[in-house]
Amino acid sequence: MSVSADVDTRPVGPEDVPDLARLFESQRTTRRCWCMAFCVTRSQFAAGWLNGGNQRRFGAMAAASSTPMGILASRAAEPVGWCACGPRSRYVAATSPRSKIMRNRARDEDEIVWLLPCLFVRAGRRGQGVTHVLVRAAVELACREGASAIEGWPLAGSEWRSDDAFVGREQVFEDLGFSCVERPSPERVIMRLELRGTE
């Protein structure tokens, strides 16, 4: 892995949605998903996939929220990667009683602990350290926004499963100082980094 120094990152607010759209248009799944899978109910997400509602809902959330929706990475002004992040309370599907992965997390932390549920790097830019850059930038943003900790739920171990690659890999989080706090299934791990006192 070579982490390129020429990757720039910025928090995504409403004014950044057009650049994010350029990135998401590069792949069919992101074009329809818009990282809404964990922010709404299954039926809302499915409808949004078909009618473009996920993109509209993302834009509305970005406009209404005082907290950025995530991190956009660019190289030479071309968007190359995205990381969704924010308070766990934003991700209602992840924190609902039906969520098997997050069911043991303390619900009284949902406003102050951030979740990093999704990562995407454009084809042709993968394997170049962009994911590490995105996670590091998400940690920095969470610190600035006053989060007490940040968590991810990546794939456990190093086995490559492309269908679930959007959650990241355990090793990436470990490389950046996260620690395993739970293994809710053989395939997934919850990684956590405490932020209080690290500013």
Query: Helix proportion of residues, in percent?
Result: 25-40%
Q: What top-tier CATH class fits best? A: Alpha Beta
Secondary structure tally: strands: 7
Rounded average pLDDT: 90
Q: How many domain modules?
A: 1
**Chain oligomer state:** single chain
Q: Provide the CATH topology.
A: Aminopeptidase
Helix and strand string, N-terminal first?
EHHHHEEHEHEHEE
Largest sheet: 7 strands, mixed
CATH architecture: 3-Layer(aba) Sandwich
Radius of gyration: 16 Å
Descriptive notes:
By secondary structure, the protein is of the alpha+beta class. It has one domain (7-194): Aminopeptidase, CATH 3.40.630.30. The protein contains seven helices and seven strands; from the N terminus they run E-H-H-H-H-E-E-H-E-H-E-H-E-E. It has a seven-stranded mixed beta sheet, sandwiched between helices. Helix 3 (42-51) crosses helix 4. The longest helix has 15 residues, at 130-144. The protein is globular, with a radius of gyration of 16 Å.
Question: How is this structure best summarized?
Answer:
By secondary structure, the chain is of the alpha+beta class.
Question: Secondary structure elements and their pairing?
Answer:
Layout: E1 7-11, H1 17-24, H2 28-33, H3 42-51, H4 53-64, E2 70-75, E3 78-87, H5 92-95, E4 113-121, H6 130-144, E5 149-152, H7 170-175, E6 179-182, E7 190-194
Parallel strand pairs: 4-5
Antiparallel strand pairs: 1-2, 2-3, 3-4, 5-7, 6-7
Helix pairs in contact: 3-4
What attributes characterize this protein structure?
single chain; 199 residues; alpha+beta; Aminopeptidase; 7-stranded mixed beta sheet; 7 helices; 7 strands; 22% strand; globular
